[in-house]
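Issue 218. Parser rejects a valid record. Input:
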Amino acid sequence: MRRRDFIGIVGSAAIWPLTAHAQQAAMPVIGFLASAAPFDPDNLNDFRKALTDAGYVEGGNVAIEVRAAERYDQLPAMAAELVRQQVAVIVASALPAALAAKASTTEIPIVFFVGDDPIRAGLVARLNRPGGNLTGMTNLQAPLLLKRFGLLREVAAAADVIGVLFNPENPNTERRLADLNEAARSTGRRMIILNASREGDFEKAFAAAGQQHAGALLISDDLAGCR
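Output the parser choked on:
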């Protein structure tokens, strides 16, 4: 699904709690929590456009509080700050932001966009009836990592050892690593894990790949944390 399609749905989903909060505040506030660095303003611009199309204009009849983390460990404090401000709804962009938002409140509605299975990630109980205070969408990006692993095996067919670069601070890492380990075992490949969570970690990770004779390198997607 295209990003703009999702933003339009999120805009609609974010509207329903605003009326309920209208009696408490003259101008309802939407908390926009992002776990991408550097922050892409186009995402927020599309979100604003979707709200405008639905009749909600920032600074007119709704306000938006943006919190964009440069590191994953900043997200819990940012989510807690939005809760303290009593925003009407939290829009969480990516799984780390959604998990931080969920941990911060059971009352404020949360609308998420993630790349993983939201049930497996622990965000909702079911897809058709999420329950709790969370709802949202996924583009199921996690299976794409396995697809990339398959393509890498074809491109580097002679590589018996494959290095995989992960950010260990990313909440997605454990689940995606388990999937890749299973895929590697089924194809007779040996996978070595290379960790990098700061800019200075990359040189050591690449050196380790060479020392362990990795014939190919797969880089896991990561939005924030490598600083």
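Fixed in the parser; the record now loads. The chain has a mean pLDDT of 81.
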